[in-house]
């Protein structure tokens, strides 16, 4: 296809530049928002025009605020059920009232940020290009502790059960105490010669820390010492060139009480037994943004913004939605009876959970949404745009 040919040319140019200007053995290509065609409509293939739909569900905007631009990084808002937290690339971290969006406190990191936010165990977490994890207290915004990793942080640190997990872009994953930032352990792995800049999220549960990796691997790490409990292949790198062999597990992971599910770019999509790592089902599917899980189904968007639903337990295809072709859709989110996705123009689209039909949409500030959206309860949705707009929506 023409799109694929254009992307291969672009990647070749990026690789040449990386090799010319980098003396290290590992090369990272593509900026967030610019590699998988996520450049605000600059991909050479023309995004699909939006057809008129008959709204079945209405997304009503409850409030919106601007917290500062995120470029060139992907920032996502978060909520602990009591408030909303967000951050910007210039170092701003804010706590917002859940009902009104009114600012409760504002903290200044006094340095650039590259990832955020994560929230849990009483702390709000952000990361920096220099590899620092900054933990602010949720109650008053005071800087509680810092920890230094050995690589740039591109995905939000996560917190749960009194623990904080974070990863750098050098293949290392770290676990800390949420109370004081004391290091528990660090896990390290060898990276492929060429990796994408889009990293896989961490998923911290009471059972293990799940992580996707460049090269198509998914691991479950012991909370006690960081040792791998198991490792599974989400994708097997294929092709002759290093570009063709990129098969990174990127974006969001999803889990329930028994399964953990993941997707890989230029690879596959699938679910695995949390205890053994054995694959329950696998499907060929190239996913740059990861997966979202509902009670019965799993959802993902491919690099052409084709959204698909699968039966979570068996992997049977549920539906395919192609109306948003090449609109640079990334990670879906499941809430109420719907699946929500957002595109390069900041438009939020609602799809029916069981049929995949487009049933509603709402606009933001016109800039792309490349961070993760978050469900707010049973009928709310939280969105952050590249230009720094944070929006709370409710289905009515």
TrEMBL record:
Broad class of the protein's primary localization: membrane
Protein family: Belongs to the BamB family.
InterPro entries reported for this sequence: BamB, PQQ_b-propeller_rpt, PQQ_rpt_dom, Quinoprotein_ADH-like_sf, WD40/YVTN_repeat-like_dom_sf
GO biological process, one term: Gram-negative-bacterium-type cell outer membrane assembly
Ranges where the Pyrrolo-quinoline quinone repeat domain occurs: 90-321
One Pfam family matching this protein: PQQ_2
Role noted for this protein: Part of the outer membrane protein assembly complex, which is involved in assembly and insertion of beta-barrel proteins into the outer membrane.
Record SUPFAM superfamilies: Quinoprotein alcohol dehydrogenase-like
Keyword terms of this UniProt record: Cell outer membrane, Membrane, Signal
GO CC list: cell outer membrane
Quaternary assembly: Part of the Bam complex.
Localisation per UniProt entry: Cell outer membrane
Alphabetical list of SMART domains matching this protein: PQQ (SM00564)
Span of the signal peptide: 1-20
Protein name stated in the entry: Outer membrane protein assembly factor BamB
